[in-house]
Amino acid sequence: MKGIIQREYFIFKHNIILYLCIWTLIPMIVYLFISIPFSFYIKLSNGINYLNWSSVGNWISTSSIITFAISMSIANRYRESANFSRTMLCTPNSNREHLSAIIIWSSGIGIIQLLFSLLITLSFKSANLFALDIFLVIIYIIPIIILISNIGFLIGLSFETQLVRIIISLFLLMFIFFSSGLFVPLNESLPSIFTLSPLYLSVQNIQSIMMNDSSMISSSFILLLIAMIIFIINLVITSKVFKS
Amino acid sequence: MEASITLKSLAKKFNNDIILADLSLGIESNSNHAIIGQNGAGKSTILKILIGLIEKDAGIAYINGKDISTREIETKMVTGYMPQHIDLDTEMTIFENLMVFGKLYGISSEAAKKHILKFSEVFDFKGDLLEFPTKLSTGTLRLIQFTRAMIHDPEILLLDEPTNGMDPQNKMKVWDILDTIGKNKTILFTTQDFEEVEKYADRISILHHGQIRMDGSLDKLIGVTKGLSKYQIRFADSPPENIIESMKKMPKVLKPEIIGKSLEFYSDQRKDFFEVLRLAIVVGISDIDMSFCKLLDLYLGLIGNGME
After folding, report:
1. A14–B92: do the CB atoms touch at under 8 Å?
2. How far apart are the first and last CA of chain A?
3. Which pLDDT does position B224 carry in this prediction?
4. Least buried of A12, B170, B249, B279, by fewest C-beta within 10 Å?
5. Is residue B260 a contact partner of residue B302, using CB atoms and an 8 Å limit?
């Protein structure tokens, strides 16, 4: 597994400037093109500032996007017949090790993105967050990142055509972001499939931290459980795709 | 001798095309075994099945007596593989490409570095270690792939057209290395280079339509031709008309054919040659050539279904 992560590290090392640009620009873009325009139209009922409230959306969406993209692109490399990734399959490493390494790596990059997003959004609009709150926010977002990483791997491995992958990813991420109340507060009259979804509850928990309210960790455990189920599905798919 | 690799009734289909059909083969320990065959005959498929890149449809394959399906990690640990195509990661330097593979085989960074330096000196790519693969020639990249296959000093080497794209000098270097350090290794290689096969293979398997058509040492294979010779008569102008029809009436003459201004045929009877010469002499002959059957002739005969 170390070798698989080392490969990604070497590639990362050669593209560090690009990564730094992405880590810095994505939260700014989300802030400028989603948070600020939406702030003119959305007034929150509890009187909290929308720009502060939507920071949660910024943290989750940016870290999810980067995790998803990396996980999907690494997974897709295994589909190309003359790719280094295919030859890596000749080495004594199980599919589980390949999959775990990709999830660890993409989640790691996503967590760094989260730190950048936290730093940038908090410097834009200072919310009353203490170090412990920030720590809790990170703890709550990590299961979401792990889940998204698994979904990214699933999409990358399941669809060969790039255009199909892009379209599916766009729709999927948009659905996840807006159905979990990241940038637009969900109406309580929506079907319970939305209001009781663990992702929505996790987002609510993080927003509660922002408002200095109490939060519950249970939804994060459910997210981790879902991530594990997708991990198992991915393992089954790898046994087919890795030996095609 | 003990078999390092055993294939029993192996079968593989791709989109209804039969690539391997009931293929059985044993490869002795510490031997150089060559598989030759047309493009698409299934040579690479055999290697990819052994290394775990392709799932077989039927049959069993063993490496050192271990089933590759149930003891995959163990069999991969003792096997080194060099694919036919360049597959180095273009986003990493040559050194990083090789180091990653060392790590994937679980060898220490120091041991990997030592191996890389040793082979880069032998193959003269030490100066290219910090370059990216896109900047290097195909020949050098093939040498790097060869180095990578050897990085964990495997007992068994599976080489898919190993010297394809290399210049003669590097080809010799590769075979010298295999001769020196490969004495205690089992080498299974595929190739289109018959000279290489004749020189370096202890055993040869001819693969055609997914099955091993002939298998054995070079002497054994050539032995089946029973002194068959290849004759070639080159004409100043076009060969005489109806000469092929006349030759077909000679029972010992095999595979007569006209290629450009040349007439080629096989026979184990010298008198047949004189008879053909008598027929050919009516038009101007520019050259005559005769040679004993080589592996290439045997192979072309088998593939072309003319000499079975």
Report:
1. yes
2. 22
3. 67
4. B249
5. no
Confidence of residue A143 (pLDDT cuts 50, 70, 90): very high
Q: Where are the alpha helices (DSSP H) in B78-108?
A: 94-104
Residue A215 near residue A205 (C-beta atoms within 8 A): yes
Within chain B, which residue ranges are assigned CATH 3.30.70.260?
A: 229-292
Dihedral of CA atoms B23, B24, B26, B32 in degrees, nearest 10, equals -20
Minimum CA–CA partner of A243 in chain B: B54
Of B35-44, B65-74, B177-186, where does the model show the most confidence?
Answer: B65-74
Q: What is the pTM of this model?
A: 0.81
CATH number (3.30.450.20, 2.40.128.130, 1.10.10.10, 3.40.50.300) of B3-223 reads: 3.40.50.300
A74 CB-near residues (< 8 Å, 6+ apart): A8, A85, A102, A105, A106, A153, A156
Residue B51 CB coordination number (10 Å): 24
CATH topology of domain B229-292: Alpha-Beta Plaits (3.30.70)
Query: What are B270-277's contacts with CB under 8 Å, separation 24+?
Result: B270/B229, B273/B229, B273/B231, B275/B250, B276/B231, B276/B233, B276/B243, B276/B247, B276/B250, B277/B233
Least confident of A10-19, B95-104, B181-190: B181-190
With contact defined as beta carbons under 8 Å apart, do A21 and A29 qualify?
Answer: no
- Provide the 3-class DSSP secondary structure of residue B158: strand
Where does chain B hold its CATH 3.40.50.300 domain(s)?
3-223
Of B76, B88, B100, the CB nearest to A10: B100
Q: Which residues of B touch A82 (CB under 8 A)?
A: 83, 85-87
The rounded distance, in Å, linking the Cα atoms of B297 and B308 is 12
**Complex ipTM:** 0.81
